[in-house]
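Convert to structure. Protein one:
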Amino acid sequence: MKSAKENILKHTHNTNIDLLKLCACIGVIGLHTFKYNAAPILYYLCCFSVPVFFMVSGYFSLNKAIPTGEGYYIKKITSVLRIVILWNIIRFLISLSGILIGKNISEYSITYLTKQILESFLQKGKMWHFWYLGALILIYLFLFLFNGLYKNISLFNNKKLYYMFLLWGAAILCSVTMQTFSVFQGKSVQQHIIQTFRLWCWIQYFILGGLVPHIQPVLMKKLSDKQHLLLLCISSIFIVWYQYIISNHILNTKFAEYFYDSIFIIGWVFILFTFILRLHISGKWYKYISVFCPLTLGVYIVHPLVMSSIVGKLNSIPNYTAAICSFIIVLITSFTGVWVLNKIWFIKKYLLTL
């Protein structure tokens, strides 16, 4: 059997990674619908989703054979900018079409549109969730510089893997220090920095994803499938308890985003990621995964619009029933809508694909 790294270098399709992307996409919807004051167990279980997205990106980006060198990252940045700009234009046109009589149309100008695009990177406005894409751009810029440094400084001597571990160590040290300081202070330090700029955290997960193909073979020798599953179940129970206790009695903030720096969350996400990678996916499940996985980017983009337009009032009701109903409605509506849009080639090419 070929190693995970060999499969990446030869561009072999990886259904397990597709499953991870699908789970992360569903988890993001859960984060936005299972409110911590309505369904805390389900909410905190969805904490894995954002870190997994960054790990999946790193899994491919840091192990892929890139013939064009730094040009790969420039192309990635350009693709992300295209998605953000075009969707903001669409949102702008929707706003224009819904202008009520007597409303000041001068508010809807090119300046206003430009402001909306910039704010979407900063977790503001109607497309606030594009902060993730803003963070991704900053990571690609970082990797652009790192790739150039690696190629031009003889000190590296083709020890890229060694320096990946070194960078990851520095990033995780920042994360653990930040979280430890928050616990001792009794207040989250991260709340003063918007998610776009918490690069120490995202780079840590991104590089960890890139290191997985090198760690996975060793892990599979040390842990059987059943042992790995047991470890995942125990750690999942602990993680929910840990987040609930810390958020209610120490940090006084219940948002899952303030736990991404925790060493416990990092360990749990790594256990989950590596467990799903070792699953043997049957042909039946492969068929379903291959249908839904290509829709994940589109679902990530449209689900907040679905939330605000369809389940806005329902989502504000703090109980389990409302939270679960909201989750199901957003999940089904988003996937169905994106599945339809994906049938139109120019929408799929320019609006739903990076």
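Protein two, convert as well:
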Amino acid sequence: YAEMLSRIRDSAYLQADESPIPVLTSQTPGSTHKGYQWVFHLPKSKLVVFQYHQSRSKSVPTEVLAGFNGCLQTDGYAGYKDVVQRKDITHIACMAHARRKFEAAQENDPDRAHHALVEFQKLYAIERYGKKNELSADQIQVVRQQEATPVLDALRGWMEDQYTQVLPKSAIGKAIAYSLNLWPKLTLCTRNGEWRNDNNAVE
């Protein structure tokens, strides 16, 4: 494990996620308690490290990522806040999580949710094009800057305009706020073709 931990800390680009899992309780046969499987993924080497903890506390990523100074991609969970605020870490958010907020808002506001989802589809079509044509990281970066950036700029402008017209606590209001709050981190992948636009691989 020490070797895996060292590889995590030495990596230039890392994805992280945590998932709740039921764990059998030895004191009461047949009963379970909630634990968490923390997952750390190195996309370049495809190495995946699993670490079980009883807690979802911020102390876990703080400990595991001590000494890490690369690019870290996570969802919007606040448990990573202390780590990503460090000056030696570049934090990327997950576009899939932003898209899911709009999927969840379709019942609340189908028209606005549909518009956002169509724009997200355009962004994912660009990613599929790069993968299908086996583009290099440099080529992917160029394609993103030329094709994804205009879509992102238009989507942000639309969200900023629409947010003034919706109830902040509604599903669509929360979806827009989630994306706008993370916007700089959601769009960082346009600067580096090595970085992915979402965290799906680790999830």
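The radius of gyration is 19 Å. Residues 189 and 196 are 6 Å apart (CA to CA).
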